[in-house]
Amino acid sequence: PSVPRHTNRLINEKSPYLLQHAHNPVDWYPWGQEAFDKAKTENKLIFLSVGYSTCHWCHVMEEESFKTKEIGEIMNQHFVCIKVDREERPDVDKVYMTFVQATSGGGGWPMSVWLTPDLKPFAGGTYFPPEDGVHRVGFRTVLLRIAEQWKENKDALLESSQSILEALRHTSEIRVQGQESPPPPKEVMDTCFQQLSRSYDEDYGGFSKSPKFPTPVNLNFLFTYWALHRTTPEGARALQMALHTLKMMAHGGIHDHIGQGFHRYSTDQHWHVPHFEKMLYDQGQLAAVYSRAFQISGDEFFADVVRDILLYVSRDLSDQAGGFYSAEDADSYPTTTSGKKREGAFCVWAAEELRALLPDPVEGATEGTTLGDVFMHHYGVEEAGNVDPMKDPHQELKGKNVLIARCSPEQTAAWFGLESDRLSALLQECQQRLSSARAQRPRPHLDTKMLAAWNGLMISGFAQAGAALAEQGYVSRAAQAAAFLRTHLFDLDSGRLLRSCYRGKDNSVEQSTVPIQGFLEDYVFVIQALFDLYEASLEQGWLEWALHLQHMQDKLFWDPKGFAYFSTEAGDPSLLLRLKDDQDGAEPTANSVAVTNLLRAACYSGHMAWVEKAGKILAAFSERLQKIPITLPEMVRATAVFHHTLKQVVICGDPQGEDTKEMLRCVRSVFSPNKVLMVADGDSTGFLYRQLPFLASLERKDGKATAYICSNFTCSLPVTSVQELRGMLSP
Length: 731
Known about the structure:
CATH superfamily of the largest domain: Glutaredoxin
Helix content: 40-55%
Strand order of the largest sheet: 1-3-2-4-5
Largest sheet: 5 strands, mixed
Number of domains: 5
Strand content: 5-15%
CATH topology of the largest domain: Glutaredoxin
Oligomer: single chain
Structural class: alpha+beta
Number of strands: 21
CATH class of the largest domain: Alpha Beta
Shape: globular
């Protein structure tokens, strides 16, 4: 490669996204004191650009504007320019996204915001084209207009930025309103179900026309709603909505049928043409939700999807030290000689390419049938490409096919006169061949940043899959990742989590010079992961660490006046607002998961103040939960768990004994949203016995492994039959 003509301060950063911009002609600064001081000293406005390394439109704006010498000169002359990786600094992203959404009615990335030298926002948007068009003002024009305003109307701008900040502070506040009790669970659950039911797509599943996101939070809510209403028509509909959505997603183009895993979202109603980036947080949550679908339905189809996701993550998103990488990009070079990246190039196929790769005649099928015919029929391949031009504005997918299972295996088998088992073997042969062909293409960029929060979600995915599918290998992989977090993303001296670490040279694991401290979401998702990992592995060390982190979370983030947790800790003068997220999106909001974590923590520790805290979070969000619960489905689920009280399922027995293992298999195979599992192994010096003295009073009956169902540490009669235990686990 030629020597770069420009190098800016981002060259010293670890974030793959910041490093992508290190050779722009823009004099970028990372978020920090050096940039803030320069803005104040030179009395310059700040231009803040926030994105992430696998964001398609971030790449477009870089190519069109930030790599352009002339636009770079305008930016450098009039502004102090700061680049932020939103995955590294969700705190900075959230403050300014709150502003952009409030002032423009929309949001997204890249986010472009103009700030006064004291960091107050006064103008903002998302992607800007470089030059003026019929419907949009160009980036160059916006830069020059804002620079002119600062010169001519500085006082008015400062005044306006102050009043904007006050308004944001007021509208974004979430606190308990007078009443100090959680909202009524039945009404909140029913309203959320009705709101989801109304937005449900009966044909293709999902909860909007387009774009369509997987939103595991909705599916988890529906499973819990079904579990609590399983004998009613509403309960049956909730289950049908969730399972149908999961099936349609797995058949769709949002699911990578050759390379496994799921893309971020579908641009159309049919789950067909995705934005092709793959995010770790989606894989973790979807592995867990497909595991639950398997527990509930017993349908191997869902177990196969779990295995597919975990194969992708193990192969493509795993660091050799045990952590998980953040994401794979949507864009890549179509061939090794291409000069320009295209979205989806790694994943899409031309019909003639498939015919050339799959020419073999198929014995026993209708005469003249080739492997290519069978595969192309099953996956909806068309000679001229199967992508609607309306979903391909830049013509990047013209003549290409995004694979989507158009027929059931039975239909395809019947069409070609084949047995079902034979068809399955043929499709597998095709997939292996295409996988080898795809391996010859240039791979998309891999974001090798490792985040505590997303690693937590992925550990939960592996642990829950290991428990539900009885696959010990998945539990071991979860434990390896948890050990990685303990080594690389936990500061033993302070007892605090760190946000991120990075793959360095020679595959080492590196940390920033000044490590980023963990945010609320890091604590919440890691604590959840450690509880899931304990239930799957019965290693009490994970429980002990989870309870330590819960105490630390309380200390750093709890709001004693308004209740619930702030997303960030106090004391950072560069953060203008301390916010509480109020919407479950692609990931659940941290306070939603914190409610269930607190209830689980109380069950494992006997520390009942945590139950009280969980109730206070629900009280703080009460108004929103009653009016628009569809925005917080995970917190609605937690409301039901809070109301029904968690069942402590205690198995007394030798963890290595066959009778204990059989009981554990039974507990893990049943979907029960309001249970925690623990094993009383008779070791009175162990961590659990020290936390929960009542365990010492529980005994094995007739020398056999014995189960007790306890609520608030009061236990049922002992049970030694697996059938009886299964019946008792139903909500």
